[in-house]
Amino acid sequence: MKIVVCCKAVPGAVTEVAVAQGNVLSYRSQFQSMNECDEYAMEEAIVLKRQMGGEIIALTMGGITTQDILFTAAAKGADKIVRVDAQAQDPRAASIVLAAALKTLGADLILTGTQSRDSLSSFVGVATAQQLDIPFAFAVTAIEKDGDNSIKVRKELGGGRSADVRLPLPALVCIQTGIQPLNYVPPARLMRARQQRPTSLSLADIGLTQDDLASKGYRIASVAPPVRTGQATMIEGTPAEIVSTLLAKMKEVR
Amino acid sequence: MIPTREVYWNISNIWLMYVLFCFAAAAFAYGFWRHIRAWGATLPADRAGRVGERLAGFAKYVFGQARIHGLGRPSRLRHIYAGTFHGFFFFGLIILFVGTLVVMAQEDFGLHIMQGTFYLWFQSLALDLAGLFAIVGLCMAMARRLFFKPDRLENTQRELFNAPVLLVILVTGFTIEGLRIAATNDPWAAWSPVGALAAKALAAAIPAEGLRPLHASLWWFHLVTVLALFAALPYTKLRHVFTAPLNIYFRPLDARGAILKPIDLETAESFGVKALDQFSFKSLLDLDACTECGRCQDACPAFASGKPLSPKKVIFDLRDLLHEKRDSEGAIETDAATLVPDLIGENALWACTTCMACMEACPVFIEHVPKIVDMRRYLVMEEGRFPDTMQQSVRSMESRGHPFPGNTMGRLDWCKDLDVRVLAEGESAEYLYWVGCATALNARNHSTARALVNILNEARVDFGILGEAEHCTGDPARRMGNEYLFQTLAQQNIATFESRSVQKIITTCPHCLNSLKNEYSAFGTKYEVVHHSQLLADLVASGRYAPHGDYNASVTFHDSCYLGRYNGVFDEPREVIAARAGTSMIEMERHREASFCCGAGGGRMWMEEPLENRVSNLRARQALETGADVVGVSCPFCMTMLEEAVNAEKGGRDVRVLDIAELLHGPERK
Ligand code: SF4
Ligand code: SF4
């Protein structure tokens, strides 16, 4: 089975956060890492490969600095690492680029995270499946093989409920955090992974032009810092009092 | 008549002695040859050269026995009894050995020196007294083994072997001398008081014709015992007679804080130590130098709190493996077992706080901490195998530049309403105040930082901070064995310093101090780094700052490992405390070099400790025992650990934990 894991480089600690022109978020960051949800997707891919064999391709999109996370993917166990050299303006444009790249690479199963730490839109995975016109499942917590050409996945429905669904392959699955434990990448393996050269795909390589990167009608109306609502209250008193207040609060919520 | 004696009086077939000696010498030489081969021949750069300094230390620690008796050190590191008996037989046996050399010079090299005044004063009197002192020393040592049995010693049967053999040698020596004096009516008997006494007793007990035959057979028995012990030296712990002085000669001379050497990430083929043969020359020599005194274990907070770690056992286990895995020519098998977890359990390895108490206590300069970190380096760098909670902290350092996962505080939260300059790129100040993650991101430590900047402002010190541009120094990463992350963070910070032309740095955290001062210099930096205790002591001494009002409290001060043992700063924090009118100082038993860790070092801050055996609670109890009202600290980690522990242990008493800056500034002033 050929598994492609889409992963995104996201900033770590950010400083000098500001909202520019009302709807653009600007910040500085000295740290960059693989988006955590995507890291879970990568861990799941490794488990699937161990079970079913095949190959894992880690795919990212962005400038040259973003390829750093591909080395992490390679150190974790990706057989091939690919970067599309493109900066998409919005999530929709990103899904177009990814879909084109995925077509070029070919894949039986595509894994993405449910959301990225920086924009939190949860958009790209689903939109990419739509571009490719293949079945998908969102917030998946388990994947197993189901016959030769399909998989069975368990996806979260919210409110603690979940559903088991069969997906014919090829399919795209957005992985929920916690599907597998995250393994720490030993620095030695990371350093060795850095010796290899990632495949770099230009827009032309995947049959796109600069125009495809332009914003595709996904518009951010405004950006504002979160308002602290001060919802945390410290319950004081003797242990017995604390417990009864706590119980009363719980009943209230229910 | 010239005073002398006939050397091999009453002994025939002396050639046999030479034959026996050759056998013994061969066994001795083979034993040491194998040891030396196993240690390997390459001296790391920091152990070669600086001969003068090495010899000076050799004189102090070998002939001065400075770390054996520990005179002038805090009481926990003083060992008067052991120091006395060791001194007795150390010097006693050396003098007796010189006596043997004199005999050799006389008989085998034809130098006629064994006569006249020299014969009387040295070869008779001094040797006699040396033997006596050695016997007293040995009896003292045996009494300790038999009756006192300190826990730190092994106290096994095997341990009872060496001293009695030496005792037999000495006692037979005196008996032989006594028999000779009695049989020859030696006119200079008075110069050998013990021998003369023995002669009297023997003459009374044994008929005159029995003296000579008994003398001859005892002489051979004595000789054989001496040679047997000589041959056995490399094979028993008595090998330390040779290996310990060597180890002392090759002791680390760089600053204590620079003991962990950087790995060259570009060229290294593998990282850390997986198997024995990857240890350096000195690390292996260490193993054979151990005297089994157990002082390291006695000082170890991990051991004291019931963790599965004893620095002594680490050394013993590695040594036994070394001896097992050497071939007949001393080469270590290259596929020797993986050290962790086959030999040393992971729980033991991760229990170390890197507090250095073991190395401070070791009389022969064995280096436990670098070995422990080397083994951690292998686990983390090559296998990514380390405790979960530490992994989270490492991930946080990697992605957010500080080791506190889940922390959402900003680096400027503590000084929002204070007059503090944040240095942007291109700006600079005389001092950079390096706040440190544990101070900036932990609400309890904010008042330490606030007290410090208020004092600095009042004393008109020109300083600035980095604010959000400050990131972890990498200290926790390095102690956890993640050298890669340490170097990444170090390089980032060095770039930040360069963009602000930083030359002088103040830290409130001893861990930051140690990294910036002793470890960053490996990357070519030269900062003048001071801990706030040093700067504050200076400001007070020079009159630039005067504390406001009194603070009536008795204070005990907890020396943090990375300030005290690592960087030798013991006096300044005490000066700062004394500067505050109204305070009085009460020392804990374990203070200064003998201080006891708070439990946070070595990455242990990020490990859960079961309530019953927390290092911090042990320390809190020691502090509370002094009866002091205030436990003074000078480290944000110690603050976190000890405040919680003191609160848990203090019962109804009113005891506060305060940083020395808070104490100087006035704990009630914000
Ligand atoms: S450094 Fe401290 S905790 Fe580690 S072994 Fe030595 S004494 Fe024990
Ligand atoms: S390592 Fe040092 S302190 Fe520990 S038992 Fe050996 S000689 Fe003694």
Query: What is the CATH domain class of chain A?
Result: Alpha Beta
Note poorly predicted spans of chain B. none
Q: How many DSSP E strands of chain B?
A: 8
Give the ligands present. iron/sulfur cluster
Secondary-structure element order of chain A, N to C = EEEEEHEHEHEHEEEEHEH
CATH topology-level fold name of the largest domain in chain B = Fumarate Reductase Cytochrome B subunit
Total helices of chain B: the number is 27
Shape of chain A: globular
> Tell me, what is the CATH class of the largest domain in chain B?
Mainly Alpha
User: Uncertain spans of chain A, ≥5 residues at pLDDT below 50?
Assistant: none
Strand order of the largest sheet of chain A: 11-10-9-12-8-1-6-7-13
Number of E strands of chain A: 13
Computed CA radius of gyration of chain B, to the nearest angstrom: 30 Å
Tell me the number of structural domains of chain B.
4
Q: Strand fraction band of chain B?
A: under 5%
Q: How far is the N terminus from the C terminus of chain B?
A: 90 Å
What overall form of chain B do the CA principal axes indicate? elongated
| Integer tally of domains of chain A | 1
| Name of the CATH superfamily of chain A | HUPs
Q: What do we call the CATH topology of chain A?
A: Rossmann fold
Brief digest:
With 254 residues, chain A is an alpha/beta fold. Helix content of chain A is 28%, strand content 30%.
Structural commentary:
The complex is a heterodimer of chains A (254) and B (670). By secondary structure, chain A is α/β, with parallel strands linked by helices. Chain A has one domain: 3-Layer(aba) Sandwich (Rossmann fold). Chain A has 6 helices and 13 strands. Chain A has helices at residues 36-52, 68-76, 91-105, 124-132, 187-193, 239-253, and strands at 2-6, 9-11, 14-20, 24-29, 32-34, 55-61, 80-84, 109-113, 136-145, 150-158, 161-168, 171-175, 199-201. In chain A, the strands form 3 sheets. In chain A, strands 11-10-9-12-8-1-6-7-13 form a 9-stranded mixed sheet, with helices on both faces. In chain A, strands 2-5 form a two-stranded antiparallel ribbon. The longest helix of chain A is centred in the first third of the chain and has 17 residues, at 36-52. Chain A starts with a strand and ends with a helix. By secondary structure, chain B is mainly alpha-helical. Chain B folds into 4 domains: 47-249, Fumarate Reductase Cytochrome B subunit, CATH 1.20.950; 266-386, Orthogonal Bundle (Fumarate Reductase Iron-sulfur Protein, Chain B, domain 2), CATH 1.10.1060; 408-540, Rossmann fold, CATH 3.40.50; 547-665, AF0625-like (Rossmann fold, 3-Layer(aba) Sandwich), CATH 3.40.50.10700. Chain B has 27 helices and 8 strands. In chain B, the strands form 2 sheets. Chain B has a 4-stranded parallel sheet. In chain B, helix 4 (80-108) packs antiparallel against helix 5 (116-148) and helix 10 (281-289) packs across helix 13 (311-324). Chains A and B meet through helix 5 of A and helix 16, helix 17 and helix 21 of B. The complex binds iron/sulfur cluster (2 copies).
